[in-house]
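Journal club side-thread
Mid-discussion, someone asked how the predicted structure for our own chain would compare to the paper's figures. Pasting it here so we can look after the session.
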Amino acid sequence: YHLPCASSKQELGWCEALFQCGDIAASFPFWGGNRPKPCGHGSLELHCNSTNITSLNISDLDYNVFHINQTSNTLSLRLARTDLLGSFCSATFYSTTLPPEIFEVSPIYKNLTIFYLCNPSLHYLSKYTCPGRGIISAYQNPKYHSSCQSFTVNVPKTFFPEEEQLNLTYLESVLRKGFEVTVKTDEIPCEECSSSSTIEHYNRCNQPFRCGNRGGLLYPFWIPGREDCGHPNFKLDCSRGFAELNISSVRFRILHANYNSRIVRLASWDYIYSLCGGNPLSVQYIQSVLPFAPDTELLTIYVGCPNNTDDTGYYRAGFYVEELVCEDTKKATENYYVWRNMSYTLVHGEDIEYI
């Protein structure tokens, strides 16, 4: 579905919820998490990873969001390029421009040009040699453009690189602190949000619905008649008395949905009652919509393996391997379960992943 935006009015239901991740809490013009896209500007989607770090993708580069200040008359952020949080020599040597119609860099910061892939036969000031990447220089000499490639980073105006030898450790520490930007909320249009049709849509979609034995359901799930209230891939089937959906052609049942904790517990229909006799198919989860909870891991099951009883019940390379005994398993084959998703083949057979 498509709606241009949503205001902070009480009538818009869904959009009263804040994006929350660790110590970060945000409302309009941001969206992400339990705030659907219509609740914010399309370019301001916030993400929360498994370690409660908030990030924002701007012009194809990821930025960590250290702080959001929405309590004053202006909306400001402290950002740091994710690729510049580690070793500088391992970063993406790439310039990006913040959309000027949305962001304004604080006046206490400036652009610093970094020259790289420089001609090694020439002399450069404020230089450092990156292993495998050659000479880099932070000296602001426009002549270097003819003998090097370059990109820019944001640093405080008080930062000045050393003239002879670049102190890379100091530069890395400055970049890890990030920089401040202001979001131009006054220039983010929201005229259509006050229309009666938009308010009616949010009022309708903000009403929880029941499917089978499960009530209190909301986005991203939907049933016929509520197509515009959910994610296209999360249509529910209530015909068997349960709330069920298909993910990659595998049927899942909703066991629990808590919109306060934002936790939804799913179970593969094939494995609700027994690990044996299920349909051995791997599932590609849509983690951009339903990311795994921090305490959830993938478990790999190997089915139809050659008989190898001497190797069951052991620990190898950080993985626990146990035999999965099924009454109808052929004597010439065995099944195993492994306590971590493996990146190499431990036994011959077809591997599947399930939660």
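Post-session note: Residues 1-12, 190-196, 341-355 have pLDDT under 50 and may be disordered.
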